[in-house]
Amino acid sequence: MSSIKEQLIAKNIIKDIFDYQGLDHDIVNIYTYFENKFQILLSRYADAYNLDNCFFYIKDSYSCNAFASKTQNYNIISITNAYPILMKDKFNEKFFSNIINITFINKKSISDAYRDLYADPTFQFNNFMLDCSIQYTFSHEFRHILQFNSSKISNDFNYSENLDTRNFSIKNHAWEFDADRMASYEVLKYVFSVHRKMKVKSDEKLICLIYIALSSMFITKDLFYFDVMNQIDNKKYTINKQDFYTKKYSHPHPLVRQYNILEFFHDSIKEDFPNLDINILELLNNVLGISELYFDSLIPSQKGVYSYFEEFTNLSNEINKYNGELYDYAIKDNSIKNLLISSGINLED
Ligand SMILES: [Zn+2]
User: Fold this and answer.
1) For position 21, what pLDDT does the model report?
2) CA 17, CA 31: separation in Å to the nearest integer?
3) What's the whole-number average pLDDT of the chain?
4) Is residue 15 very low, low, confident or very high in pLDDT (cuts 50, 70, 90)?
5) How far is the CA of 348 from the centre of ligand 1 (A)?
6) Distance of alpha carbon 207 from alpha carbon 261, whole angstroms
7) In the beta sheet, which residues pair with residue 70?
């Protein structure tokens, strides 16, 4: 046992560790995979940000959820024991067999790059998307840890990613807004690292990876938006969409969050890789196209019920306006302001 773990247990800060040893071999493999991913990420990011007393663990709880907390100077990230099983199930290879049809909406050079990826035995769409989703969730939670540490108040904090319908505060929405932005940027960095390691590289292949990575974040949000994430019988999956809202509940609406992620992701690409020819409409078309192909495959009985593109465009004005409000609030919030200044981000405009 690590010493932080012993301290946390002795102080009764964590008492609900999920123990997966002794379960079926396949299940142990799934948990080991997720635990390693989160632990490696946390130790890397804790080093990079000079944060002590960081700890990751899998919590005993039966719905898909992730948490960040700061308790008595310990920085803790956790996921529930349902998260690895449900995510592994939703990102199963069988739901990604028709993703290659995305080639039909693209020009030849991009279609060819998609086909090259599809034919590459070292690359799997579903695994890459699962890893992007894990990177997103980890980075989102880690940003909460940074927010907690950047604020002067010495309170304990505990953020859960499950929607709490009783509480609304603009500050919480702004903190989610900020955490999503950092998370999408970290996913972008992850995409570049995957592309860098590929034997054959090209701008077109990198663009496809960018499309697929953003689709992974959208699909992760949609699984909650459509209320499918916690369903376990894939023959009976049904979509129950959450009605649109702005100033309500603990987290912004998934469409608001997707828009924010899309915009920040696109801005970051333009900023870091100005030579990469990425058009925001093509980006959105690919992401919505991949999401639709995925959900058609996941829930064939409700094919096409979510006129997603229409919804996204119809609400765009309202979403933009609210995201603008969250941005204005965020850059005045002390915690976020300190973080942005320390990372050299220009706060004008
Ligand atoms: Zn959050």
Assistant:
1) 93
2) 13
3) 93
4) confident
5) 25
6) 17
7) 75, 157
Do 105 and 289 contact (CB within 8 A), yes or no?
yes
Query: Distance, CA 45 to ligand 1 centroid (Å)?
Result: 17
Find the 98 Cα to ligand 1 centroid distance in Å: 32
Q: What was the pLDDT predicted at 349?
A: 44
CA of 189 to the centre of ligand 1 (A): 20
Please tell me the pTM assigned to this model. 0.95
* C-beta of residue 305 within 8 angstroms of C-beta of residue 239: yes
- If one compares 1 and 64, the residue with the highest pLDDT of the two is 64
CA 201 to ligand 1 centroid distance, Å: 34
| Whether residue 2 has pLDDT greater than 70 | no
Taking the centre of ligand 1 as the mean of its atom positions, its distance from the CA of residue 203, in whole angstroms, is: 33
Span from the CA of 159 to the centroid of ligand 1 (angstroms): 6
Calculate what percentage of the chain has a pLDDT beyond 90: 81
Q: Over the stretch 101-131, which tens digit does the pLDDT of each residue have?
A: 999 999 999 999 999 999 999 999 999 999 9
Phi-psi region of 344 (alpha: psi -120 to 50; beta: other; left: phi over 0): left
Ligand 1 center from residue 172 Cα (angstroms)? 8
- As a whole number of angstroms, the distance between CA 317 and CA 314 comes to 8
Report the length, in residues, of the chain: 349
- Distance from C-alpha of 18 to C-alpha of 20, rounded to nearest angstrom: 6
pLDDT of 142 over the 50 cut: yes
Q: How far is the CA of 152 from the centre of ligand 1 (A)?
A: 20
